[in-house]
Design goal:
Helices cover 75% and strands 0% of the residues. By secondary structure, the protein is mostly helical. Helix 1 (3-29) crosses helix 6 and helix 2 crosses helix 3 (47-54).
Length: 212
C-alpha cells in the first residue's frame, strides 16, 4: 500500500524537475533551439523519462505554457460578485506581480508564443482560457452594474492589469538597463504598490491600507 503513493510522489517530483528545466531552456533558446536531450540533461534525468512523461518536445512546450497560464488565472479564480472589488483586484495585481518576479521565464515563453500567433495554445484557449475569461468578465461586469467599480469595459481592465504586471517579466532586461540595476524584492514591492494604486484609483476604488 505504500508503493503507490511513493511512486506517485516520485512521478510528480520528476515532472516538476522536467518542467523547470524546460522552462529555463525554452526561455533561453526558444522552441526550435531547444532539444529534448538538452532538457533531460538540465533536469538530470534520462531522455526516455522526459518522453515518457510528456511524449514529445511539443507536448512539453505546451505543458510549460499551460502551467504559467494556469498560475496566472488561479490568482483570480475564486473572486465572486459579493467580494470587495478593491481587495480582490489589489490581491490579483499583487499575485501577478509576484509571479512576474518569481517566474519570469514562463512569462517570456508565453509572450513569445502569443506574439507568434498562439498556434500551440489553440485548444487550451478554446476549452479553458476563454471560458475562464468569460466568467471573470462576468464578475467584473456585475460590479460595474451595481456601481461598485467605475470602469467601462471588463476586458480592458484585465488587459491593462496583464500588460502592466507582465511587463516586469517580459521586459526585465530593458528595466535593468534603464534603472541601472536589476530589480530586487524591495523594488518589486514598490512597483506593486504603485500599480495597485494606479489601477484602483482609475476604477474609483479606495486603495487598501496594505498598498497605500
Amino acid at each position: 500500500m505504500t508503493k503507490e503513493p511513493k511512486a506517485g510522489a516520485i512521478r510528480q517530483h520528476n515532472k516538476q524537475r522536467i518542467l523547470a528545466a524546460a522552462e529555463e531552456a525554452f526561455a533561453e533558446h526558444g522552441f526550435k533551439g531547444t532539444s529534448v536531450q538538452k532538457i533531460a540533461d538540465m533536469a538530470g534525468l534520462p531522455k526516455t523519462n522526459v518522453l515518457y512523461y510528456f511524449n514529445s518536445k511539443q507536448g512539453l512546450y505546451i505543458a510549460v505554457l499551460e502551467q504559467i497560464l494556469s498560475l496566472w488565472n488561479s490568482a483570480f479564480d475564486s473572486a465572486t460578485v459579493e467580494d470587495d472589488p478593491a481587495e480582490v483586484l489589489a490581491q490579483y495585481i499583487s499575485d501577478k506581480m509576484r509571479i512576474s518576479q518569481e517566474k519570469p521565464q514562463g512569462s517570456k515563453i508565453f509572450a513569445l508564443e502569443i506574439i507568434n500567433g498562439a498556434h500551440n495554445l489553440t485548444d487550451f484557449f478554446k476549452h479553458n482560457h476563454v471560458s475562464w475569461m468569460q466568467s471573470r468578465v462576468g464578475v467584473i461586469q456585475q460590479w460595474i452594474d451595481q456601481g461598485k467599480i467605475d470602469t467601462q469595459d471588463p476586458y480592458y481592465l484585465l488587459f491593462h492589469i496583464w500588460s502592466c504586471s507582465q511587463h516586469y517579466a517580459d521586459f526585465s532586461a530593458q528595466i535593468t538597463e534603464l534603472k541601472g540595476s536589476k530589480m530586487n524584492a524591495q523594488d518589486f514591492e514598490q512597483a506593486t504598490r504603485s500599480l495597485v494604486q494606479l489601477i484602483l484609483k482609475g476604477c474609483g476604488l479606495s486603495v487598501p491600507s496594505k498598498y497605500a
